[in-house]
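look at this record:
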Amino acid sequence: MEFDDFTDIIRFAMDNELEAQTFYEEASARLENPALKQMFTELAGEEKRHRDLLRALYTSNRFGDFFHEDRDFQVAETVEMPALSTDMKPADAFALAMKKEEAAMKEYTALGDACRDEKQKRLFLDLAAMERSHKLKMEKAFTDIGFPEVW
């Protein structure tokens, strides 16, 4: 995938955020568990906020390092992606969300690694850090649900 400039990358990222927001909204609409519906609604809101931030960066033409999450528990890598179902268990809902965030993080990382332009590479890795922060949040929730004895 080729990107001519930073605005192409930001537009691509905004499209990804919209796709994630739509997924979480549709998931929320399908779920029966009120707590999970709320969780997916909140995730959709986070994706919208990230898209709004990216839009502000796009219109300001100001690019730099904005996301700095480098912690990665790598919990998502240890589970399979569950299918979305109306009666899914909370742990499966968190697993689904963390797998979605993992996929986005890996996509941006791969795009960054493939860049020859150092500034574009940094932007992709910054976007990967944004997704890593979402993944980290879902991994924490997943381990809290899966291992309540740690509370």
Remarks:
- The helical segments are 6-30, 34-60, 90-114, 118-146.
